[in-house]
């Protein structure tokens, strides 16, 4: 960029942001609330113009999205969804006194809702899925399944010798279906719905039904196994007690000598009563100790994760549910994410914490059983000690009768314990033999008739939406990353330069308002020196007309130029140039000359574009003598009359100095001291001097002429000149200390920029004026 201040003291620094509203938006402090509203409105209008400008690209992007979605659905395998529902019932532990023979207390303290959630997690467990996959793999099935996507079916119908993809193997079909199993509760009920999505409709229903069957079998096997273990252990304990009872019976017979001594059952002594009480407590303690040992033995033999006392623990269930949820999240993240991803590491850490909590719960359950067993043993030991002490106290009094009585009681207690254990063993055997399941099949899965995916209507709408969004986003990206100057005001906004005027495109006027075209406006083809309209005869009817939007644009521009000029009586000398070729500087210069001459000013146009002259064609004058001849010294500027080298045009007050004849090096001619003499002579003879120069970015001609002028005018072509090019041109003038009085936006097309109403007010005024004139003429 150039200096912050130019040589004329114009501050080109952007306005500082010194205020912020409640929404956080920044704005100049001098703005009012209406200014901010207008700014937001203008931004919204600009967004609409961007969308309208790129509407065909957005439309093409939307069509591409639709085609892409159709192609994807065309080649995608269809998914069929089968559904089945189960009724999860709670186990009735009071049936046949099953609660008394279950050492783990299964089902105690758990609600129906918790039971349903637990069963859902079990249905989603990897163990059940692996069991189901193994069962399906063991059943008779075909090795492959044909592809049922639309492309394969179409190829099959047409019998084309091509293949879209390989047939689906049975292993891939099983694995993919296992990944698309969903279990969810149905409202506030005991019902659970299982959905299985598969590439094959029949296999989807088959997988669902196999899954429910395996779940019921696993539930029955678990309960039957636990009951069988309990029954076997109780039977073994009953056999041991039977041996003890028989041994006690032999001792009793030996003590009585076989004479059937009968002991008194109602002793009146305090010692006998106390001994009897201790004996009863000891029997209960022994029964309690045996029960605790059975529970401890079961806990030691069975897996801790299968013990109902552990699984029914609310804390352990919460851990199980949290562990299943965390593993599900990890399965969703890996892949695509790797194990080094922070989210995966965090989830793995939480899984380890949950597993540690589950291990702690299992250890706590084991420690509780051990503590209860130790307590029972200690209590039994204490009772046994107390019993023996009391026996010793009363033995001296009772003698042989007491001993016999004690043996009799031992026999009775052991026989009672034997009967109790034998009854429990039978009940446990009944429970294991009874095939009662808590899972009831409500609706079996049936073969779905239609695939649920891909949904071509939905995918088409999604493709349309995504394609449109991509097109809109790309349109904004393209527009924001484009630095082309297009509409009025952008030069002032981005370059902080005065915009002297806006010249509309003559093609826009011909197209939008054909009745208002002005054939007298001088127009050159881009890159050519031929006149587009009236090249032979320069009719001035258009300039004399009161209503021509192009002519009015030039009149307004000339007025802006005159206002920015100096206030001295010397002639104003302006260099007209542009950053690039084809920006229309020659057309603008010639028409500015016409417009200035209409203000009763003596105007001369100097054709300084010696490389590609065109002003003589634009104003229809000969090019035999001109600037080249003057700079070579063929004409004495001090003595020659102005008419010798200055050609008068058909337009009053407008003259032109063409480029002249010759082929010398342009740089040598422009550095001739005669150029300063020529400019000085034109100062004295004319009111306004316009110098048409070549594009300045790559040629120094305009910068050389500008050193002899009072200012430069930069022509910007709408939709062609970029901000970078205009900025470089401005910086060149700043470095040369040349005053850049402003810019002219040329070839502005409101229709192309979606500002079709830009000149509506002008043409409404024109129509009203013509209507008024016709009415006045008619009256």
TrEMBL record:
Entry's Gene Ontology molecular function annotations: ATP binding; protein tyrosine kinase activity
CDD domains associated with the record: BY-kinase
UniProt keyword Kinase, yes or no: yes
Localization: Cell inner membrane
Domain Tyrosine-protein kinase G-rich: 405-478
Bilayer topology term: Multi-pass membrane protein
Keywords, in A-Z order: ATP-binding, Cell inner membrane, Cell membrane, Kinase, Membrane, Nucleotide-binding, Transferase, Transmembrane, Transmembrane helix, Tyrosine-protein kinase
The protein's name: non-specific protein-tyrosine kinase
Originating species: Edaphobacter modestus
Classification lineage: Bacteria, Pseudomonadati, Acidobacteriota, Terriglobia, Terriglobales
């Amino acid at each position: 960029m150039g200096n912050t201040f130019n040589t004329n003291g114009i501050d080109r620094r952007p306005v500082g942001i010194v205020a912020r509203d409640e929404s956080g938006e920044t704005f100049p402090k001098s703005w009012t609330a209406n200014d901010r509203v207008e700014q937001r409105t203008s931004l919204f209008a600009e967004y609409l113009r961007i969308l309208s400008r790129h509407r065909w690209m957005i439309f093409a992007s939307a069509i591409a999205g639709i085609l892409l979605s159709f192609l994807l659905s065309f080649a995608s395998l269809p998914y069929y969804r089968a559904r089945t529902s189960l009724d999860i019932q709670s186990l009735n532990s009071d049936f046949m006194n099953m609660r008394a023979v279950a050492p783990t207390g299964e089902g105690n303290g758990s609600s129906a809702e918790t039971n349903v959630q637990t069963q859902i997690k079990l249905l989603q467990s990897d163990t059940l899925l692996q069991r189901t996959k193994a069962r399906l793999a063991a059943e008779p099935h075909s090795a492959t399944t044909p592809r049922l996507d639309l492309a394969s079916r179409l190829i099959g119908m047409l019998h084309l010798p091509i293949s879209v993809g390989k047939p689906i193997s049975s292993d891939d079909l099983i694995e993919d279906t296992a990944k698309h199993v969903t279990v969810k509760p149905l409202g506030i009920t005991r019902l659970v719905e299982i959905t299985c999505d598969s590439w094959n409709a029949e296999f989807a229903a088959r997988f669902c039904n196999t899954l429910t069957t395996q779940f019921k079998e696993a539930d029955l096997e678990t309960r039957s196994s636990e009951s069988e273990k309990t029954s076997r252990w109780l039977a073994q304990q009953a056999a041991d007690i039977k041996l003890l009872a028989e041994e006690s019976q032999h001792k009793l017979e030996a003590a009585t000598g076989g004479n059937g001594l009968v002991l008194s059952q109602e002793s009146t002594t305090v010692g006998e009563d106390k001994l009897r009480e201790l004996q009863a407590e000891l029997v209960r303690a022994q029964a309690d100790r045996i029960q605790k040992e059975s529970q401890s033995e079961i806990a030691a033999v069975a897996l801790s994760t299968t013990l109902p006392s552990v699984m029914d623990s609310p804390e352990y269930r919460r851990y199980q549910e949290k562990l299943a949820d965390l593993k599900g999240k990890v399965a969703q993240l890996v892949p695509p994410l790797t194990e080094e991803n922070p989210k995966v590491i965090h989830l793995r850490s939480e899984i380890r914490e949950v597993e540690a909590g589950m291990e702690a719960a299992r250890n706590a359950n084991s420690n509780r059983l051990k503590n209860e067993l130790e307590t029972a043993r200690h209590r039994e030991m204490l009772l046994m000690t107390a019993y023996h002490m009391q026996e010793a106290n009363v033995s001296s009094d009772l003698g042989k009768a007491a001993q016999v009585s004690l043996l009799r009681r031992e026999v009775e207690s052991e026989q009672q314990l034997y009967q109790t254990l034998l009854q429990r063993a039978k009940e446990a055997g009944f429970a294991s033999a009874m095939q009662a399941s808590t899972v009831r099949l409500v609706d079996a899965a049936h073969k779905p008739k239609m695939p649920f995916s891909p949904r071509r209507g939905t995918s088409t709408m999604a493709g349309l939406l995504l394609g449109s969004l991509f097109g809109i986003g790309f349109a904004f990206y393209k527009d924001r990353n484009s630095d082309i100057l297009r509409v009025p005001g952008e030069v002032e906004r981005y370059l902080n330069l005065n915009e002297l005027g806006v010249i509309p495109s003559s093609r826009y006027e011909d197209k939008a308002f054909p009745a208002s075209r002005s054939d007298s406006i001088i127009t050159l083809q881009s890159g050519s020196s031929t006149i587009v309209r009236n090249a032979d005869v320069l009719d001035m009817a258009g300039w004399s007309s009161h209503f021509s939007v192009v002519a009015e644009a030039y009149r307004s521009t000339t007025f802006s130029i005159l206002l920015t000029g100096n206030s001295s009586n010397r002639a104003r000398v302006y260099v007209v140039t542009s950053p690039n070729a084809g920006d229309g500087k020659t057309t603008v210069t010639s028409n500015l000359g016409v417009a200035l001459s209409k203000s009763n000013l003596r105007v001369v146009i100097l054709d300084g574009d010696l490389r590609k002259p065109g002003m003589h064609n634009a104003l229809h004058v000969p090019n035999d003598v001109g600037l080249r001849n003057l700079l070579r010294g063929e004409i004495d500027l001090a003595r020659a009359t102005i008419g010798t080298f200055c050609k008068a045009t058909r337009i009053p007050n407008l003259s032109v100095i063409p480029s002249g004849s010759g082929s010398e090096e342009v740089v040598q001619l422009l550095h001739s001291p005669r150029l300063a003499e020529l400019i000085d002579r034109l100062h004295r003879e004319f009111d306004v001097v316009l110098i048409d120069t070549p594009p300045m970015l790559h040629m120094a001609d305009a910068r050389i002429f500008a050193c002899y002028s009072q200012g430069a005018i930069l022509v910007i072509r709408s939709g062609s000149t970029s901000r970078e090019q205009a900025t470089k041109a401005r910086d060149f003038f700043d470095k040369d200390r040349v005053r850049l009085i402003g810019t002219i936006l040329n070839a502005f097309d409101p229709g192309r920029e979606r500002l079709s109403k830009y000149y509506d007010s002008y043409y409404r005024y024109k129509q009203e004026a013509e209507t008024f004139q016709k009415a006045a003429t008619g009256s």
